[in-house]
């Protein structure tokens, strides 16, 4: 019995689609899709969302080579591309990474197992390490960046935030928030926005064992880093005043006192 057959036997109803937004990253997309096709548990489908690439013909050829579904999202911005991919997905769980990511071979398996073993789990996320840049700085810089993200965004939302390069959401949960997410605004971080819409009543878990390889490219330019920070701040502000940190922490405290389950159990 192959690993894939074994996983299917263990979790016959747990299927995973993978969404990969892409724009002008054909070469890196090839590496990403190759790693997805090498997964111990094959995704039900791989959905590549082209967001206006100048090299679209190359993107199309790569998607076809790796048997991925290619859809186009003309509205600019990762929020629109991400939402289009999730809308297109039909599996039980929808996983998400970026075109410059390289998941370990057990990534899909861990996602399927996590949701199969925890029926109340609605979203899952994990850490990452840089796979390029100065070798000695890869792990500590990734830890610093993602640690700061979890600390500050987690404090602002009073919950575990999902990390867009390494996350998965139940398709049924996406259906509940799809119309509310700010998919039209290219100046927002889609993962932070989705995290806010998941809310305090849904169970979101951070799994240290759910690894991911990411590129250091966005962090080598001061302008790009500043843009990310500005978009993060903008994303938080669009949810105010209803979701001000003080309001969310008060709601969290109320749920804890009431013994309410869900997102407060990590």
UniProtKB/TrEMBL annotation:
Any GO molecular function: glycosyltransferase activity
Pfam families reported for this sequence: Glycos_transf_2
Keyword DNA-binding among UniProt keywords: no
Keyword tRNA-binding: no
Residues of the Glycosyltransferase 2-like domain: 18-128
Compartments (UniProt record): Cell membrane
Gene3D superfamilies in the record: Spore Coat Polysaccharide Biosynthesis Protein SpsA, Chain A (3.90.550.10)
GO cellular component, one term: plasma membrane
Swiss-Prot/TrEMBL keywords: Cell membrane, Glycosyltransferase, Membrane, Transferase
Pathway note: Carotenoid biosynthesis; staphyloxanthin biosynthesis; staphyloxanthin from farnesyl diphosphate: step 4/5
Function: Catalyzes the glycosylation of 4,4'-diaponeurosporenoate, i.e. the esterification of glucose at the C1'' position with the carboxyl group of 4,4'-diaponeurosporenic acid, to form glycosyl-4,4'-diaponeurosporenoate. This is a step in the biosynthesis of staphyloxanthin, an orange pigment present in most staphylococci strains.
Family (UniProt): Belongs to the glycosyltransferase 2 family. CrtQ subfamily.
Name listed for the protein in its UniProt record: 4,4'-diaponeurosporenoate glycosyltransferase
Organism: Plantibacter flavus
């Amino acid at each position: 019995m192959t690993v894939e057959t074994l996983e299917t036997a263990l979790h016959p109803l747990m299927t995973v689609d993978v969404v990969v937004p892409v724009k002008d990253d054909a070469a890196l997309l090839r590496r990403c899709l190759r790693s997805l096709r090498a997964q111990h548990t094959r995704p039900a489908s791989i959905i590549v969302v082209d967001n206006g690439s100048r090299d679209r013909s190359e993107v199309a050829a790569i998607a076809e080579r790796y048997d991925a579904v290619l859809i186009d999202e003309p509205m600019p911005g990762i929020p629109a591309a991400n939402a289009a991919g999730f809308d297109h997905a039909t599996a039980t769980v929808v996983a998400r990474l970026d075109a410059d990511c390289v998941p370990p071979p057990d990534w899909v398996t861990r996602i399927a197992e996590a949701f199969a073993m925890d029926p109340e789990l609605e979203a899952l996320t994990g850490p990452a390490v840089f796979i390029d840049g100065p070798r000695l700085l890869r792990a500590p810089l990734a830890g610093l960046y993602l640690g700061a993200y979890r600390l500050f965004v987690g404090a602002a939302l009073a919950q575990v935030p999902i990390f867009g390069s390494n996350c998965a959401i139940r398709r049924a949960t996406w259906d509940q928030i799809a119309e509310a997410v700010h998919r039209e605004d290219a100046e927002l971080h889609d993962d932070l926005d989705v995290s806010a819409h998941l809310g305090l009543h849904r169970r979101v878990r951070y799994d240290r064992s759910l690894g991911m390889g990411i590129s250091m490219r966005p962090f080598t330019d001061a302008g790009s880093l500043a843009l990310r920070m500005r978009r993060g701040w903008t994303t938080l502000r669009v949810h105010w005043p209803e979701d001000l940190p003080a309001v969310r922490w008060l709601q969290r405290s109320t749920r804890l006192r009431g013994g309410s389950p869900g997102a407060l159990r990590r």
